[in-house]
Amino acid sequence: MGFLPLALLITLQGIAVSQAGKVCYSSYGCFTDDPPFDRTLVPLPQSPRDIGTRLLLYTQASPDKYEVLSDADTATIEKSSFLPHRTTRFIVHGYAGLDSVDSIIDLKGWWGIRMKDELLRKSDDNVIIVDWIRGAKIPYVRAVANTRLVGAQVAAFMKTILSLSGSREGGAFHSIGFSLGAHISGYVGQRLKRIGRHLDRITGLDPATLMFKGEAPDVRLDRLDAQFVDVIHTSYVFGITAPHGHMDFYPNGGTSQRGCSLWDGMEGVVCHHIRAAEYFIETINPKSCPWRSYRCGSKDEFDRGKCMSCASGCPSMGYKADKFKHLIPGMFYLDTAGRSPFCVFHYRITFYTDDSYWPASLDAHAYVKLGGDLGSTGEIKLIERKLEENSVESFVARASIYLGKLQHVTIYHKHLAEFWKVKKVVVRAGWSNDIYTACFNEWIHYKNHTQKALTRGYRSC
Question: Is 206 a catalytic residue?
Fold first, then answer.
């Protein structure tokens, strides 16, 4: 990404801030430090001149060269390739922490450019990058303060669009905000409600936690800020983990992500945070994997296979989440791969162990391989768990491809001192009622790869 989203935090410059009480900026109105914005250390927003927000329009007619739009100058809109009947998607970045970059699009490899490209490849929409990098630099507390004004500026632009086109003819507004940008999107929605218009959709990509966790809904992103709010949680260090949307998605549990290593220092820590944006990018034009998620109360319940049902709907995380907005709001869990492509197919693996006169448990990782008529998996390492004799334990296994009709399963472990007696293995596809059974009735010894055929349906062994 090129950012340090929250890494330097409040102590970056040792800055002392004073509360001015109230500031007013022409058409954007006044901002005060009255409750709930009476936050210690957070000043009032800087002026529009200091922040220098730019709205950079990209369309299929001009996918690589942006046009600068302004809420205060309707001519910039009328002379551009902006078409009001299209859906307009705003990409809103977060904290930059860089004092040397003058434009967000100058950051090499920035995720927002790749997101813009995928959105335009998907549909002929108006895609607008909200470049507020001058207001997102160090210190962090000043960037937090500036989110309020940036939200007001984007809302003012939307009002201008509505006045030019008429609310009935205008297309939908979708704000996609990462980190601080998620809360900016919330402020946009709050502003629009004041004129009787609801923002159509907000996608919050790991909303920033520092200075926002536990705050009142008016301060942070909230499900009331748009007709549909979907949130992707990926980090417990930089992101809010509590649900704040109609649909809150928790890939890999929502606190840490596969493939991100703490050995990489700060870059590794930031990796978890930025994965929210990387996942969303891949959901825009998926090849074959649907990014299916499962309604669940916790990561532990999901890992134990207790939520592997689509009876009440299994929404796709990311771009297509709004196709499932008719579902009851809730928390949805899914796993990912450790590197791109991230999307996986979920299978529930259930082990039935047997009685024995000898110790017959496993207190280590179990490993499986699945094979079907359309392909096979490599080694799948299941979560470490104690598997007692005469017990039933379920796990979630990930496959990077659709396996088709399952044909065989291989199980093994790598613990020299463990002896594990397995009666049978039952495999269920996470998105259907397809169940397969493999009878083992034997000991699984150290590195003994035992493969059995899977037959359709559940049966005794």
Answer: yes
Global pTM reads 0.93
Give the pLDDT confidence score for residue 7 in this predicted structure.
38
Give the closest residue to 232 by CA, choosing from 241, 224, 222, 220.
241
* pLDDT under 70: residue ranges of the chain: 1-20, 100, 166-170, 263-264, 357-359
> Taking a C-beta distance cutoff of 8 angstroms, is the pair 29, 23 a contact?
no
Nearest one of 22, 27, 60 to 43, comparing CA atoms: 22
At 375 the pLDDT is: 96
Task: Count CB neighbours of 263 within 10 A.
Answer: 5
Q: Which of 71, 206, 222, 303 is catalytic?
A: 206
Count of CB atoms situated within 10 Å of the CB of 404? 11
C-alpha to C-alpha distance for 395 and 87, rounded to whole angstroms: 41
Please give the pLDDT value at position 40. 87
| Marked catalytic residue, from 273, 303, 322, 413 | 273
- 179 part of the active site: yes
174: annotated active-site residue: no
Give the C-alpha separation, 230 to 223, whole Å: 8
Rounded CA-CA distance 395/239 in Å is: 27
The catalytic position among 175, 179, 185, 293 is: 179
